[in-house]
Amino acid sequence: MLSERSVDSWKTPFKKGLRKMKPKVIEKESFRVAGYQFEANLQEIMGSDLVSRTVARLGEEADLFQNKLGNHLYLVQVYPMKEAFDAAKDPFTTMVGYEVTGEEAPDGAILHTVEKNTYVAYTHKGPESDLPHSYDYLYGTWLRENGYMSLGYDFELWDERYKPEERDNEIDLFIAVRKL
Question: How far is CA 110 from the centre of its chain?
Fold first, then answer.
């Protein structure tokens, strides 16, 4: 099950202070993301720098996204719903793109609707390299302790607070869930 995702895949040590995390359960309306996607596991993503390359491509082609709602980006991750899923080894779909209106995306780009849903929302504060600690706690502990199950996808919002390896970096995380 996906709640095992981070424990099995990232193998990050437990960081003090994560128990003080204050995730919120929220309802979020649907929205659309236009951008680029790829299928890979975490090892491939990190080894090939796939996310950074996709973000660079979006920056170079930003003017092609005529219907974007600002310059913020979303990273959407969709996981296979299978027992013992391990993000380090098992491929999953990653999309990086702009929030958009309408039904159009530039040639070669995808258009994806993130459905209205219940989400566990949390703001990760600190370097992006520490992000696995937040995911580990949310997927590996918080969901179980609070009686929620992942619906197989999550997303991150990268706005003006996104400064990947700086101490004042902030990334909003949203995990689609349902109550058990």
Answer: 17
